[in-house]
Every structure is written in C-alpha cells, then in structure tokens.
Design brief:
- The chain is of the alpha/beta class.
- It is 32% helix and 11% strand.
- The protein contains eight helices and six strands.
- A four-stranded parallel sheet has the order 3-2-5-6.
- Strand 5, helix 7 and strand 6 form a beta-alpha-beta unit.
Length: 224
C-alpha cells in the first residue's frame, strides 16, 4: 500500500517506497505494530512530512527517534501531544527560546504551530517500541530520512538546518549546498544542555538569517 503524504513530498519520495530496503522496513513495521506497542501510532508516522511540505520548508530541526513513553510521540521531533508533560529536552528548548527571544514559555509541548509555518520537525528514525529508545534504528529509516535531507539540500531557496547533538551533526555531510545555513550545538538534553545549548541563540540567528534575505522571520511563539 502506497504512502500518501498529500503534498509535494509524494512525487519526491515515491521512488523510495518502491525500493527493497523500504519494503523490508514495511514488513518489519507490520509485525511490530501487530505484536508490540509502537510509537507514534501508525497514522502519525509521517506527520512531519505531511504537515510541512517540501516547498514550504524553511527550517529543518533534526531529532533522533520518537519519544518512547505512552502518549508522547505524534510524529514531530521534540514535540509531544497536548496534555502530556513536557520532556526534559523540550523544557530546555523552551528555556533557551525564552532567554533568546524573551518569549513566554508555553503551557504545553505541542509544536504543530512550528511545523505549520515551515519548520520540518524530522526524526531520523520515525518509529520506536514502547519504553525502548533506539529500538527501530538500523531497520531502514535512516536511509529514508537521509534521502529527505538530500532532497532538501538540493532546494534552491535557502534553508536553515538545526543540528543539535552528535547524532544530528553526523548528517552534516548531506548538507553541501552553500546557500543553506547550518547551526550546530550540543543536544538540549539535561546531560549536555549546559555545555553550549543554553546561550546558543539559534532562534534569533535563524530570524537574522531570514531578515538578511528579505524574508519574514519565524514566529517561534508556540501557539496555545
């Protein structure tokens, strides 16, 4: 069964869904969803690509794999559904956002308003078993999301890539187009945030980049 993203990603990614690695991944996922608890639910696996089309993408915020706690993951990197406590990394993102742009820390952790204005919240692995971080790595998702990044690298309009932590930064070789801006720092996890994430000012740097291009800045205030 073909994956339908309902925007321009359909044409760009159609060849991937026919490749052997993806067919193997799909068979693996069918078995996983039948026999264990997997996040996000199968209807939100591709939520990032559905919400943020190729043409509308301005910023790429790269995560690793989905949150593996009940009710957290809904297909957008770093985001959780409304009513779910904000994970520590997301709390630190909001702390730096508040420090950098003097914005009010939102009462929830749902980042749909970011995705809807061109921030692609992409995990490099799109599924995970309940309670088992990294359990779906090495099954083919990385090949798929590397293709997404390669297509974005080819985009003619300038993008910003936010690479937080070593895993995200390992994807930097895919971003060779000099028109794009790459911003790097440590992961916002409590284990590393104090080693450079706090004070990185990435949010204001993104907006400065777009202003210099004569474009509208990003509205980083998470909508209620």
């Amino acid at each position: 069964m073909a994956v339908v993203l309902e925007n321009d990603w359909d044409e760009l990614l159609a060849p991937e869904f026919e490749k052997d690695y993806y067919k193997m991944l799909r068979r693996f996922l069918i078995q996983e969803y039948r026999t264990t608890t997997v996040y996000p639910d199968m209807y939100h696996i591709f939520e990032a690509l559905k919400r943020t089309s190729f043409a509308e993408t301005r910023v790429v915020l790269l995560g690793q794999d989905p949150y593996h706690g009940k009710g957290q993951a809904h297909g957008l990197a770093f985001s959780v559904q409304r009513g779910v406590p904000k994970p520590p990394s997301l709390q630190n993102i909001f702390k730096e956002l508040s420090r950098d742009l003097a914005l009010e820390i939102p009462g929830h952790g749902c980042l749909e308003s970011w995705a809807d204005q061109g921030i692609l919240l992409l995990n490099t692995t799109l599924t995970v078993r309940d309670g088992q971080a990294g359990s779906h790595r090495g099954r083919g998702w990385e090949t798929f999301t590397d293709t997404v990044l390669a297509r974005l690298n080819e985009k003619e309009t300038p993008l910003v890539f936010l690479l937080w932590g070593r895993h995200a930064q390992s994807k930097e070789p895919l971003i060779i187009n000099k028109r794009h801006l790459v911003l790097k720092t440590v992961h916002p996890s409590p284990l590393s945030a104090h080693r450079g994430f706090f004070g990185c000012s990435h949010f204001s740097k993104v907006n400065e980049f777009f202003r210099e291009l004569g474009q509208e800045p990003v509205n980083w205030q998470v909508q209620p």
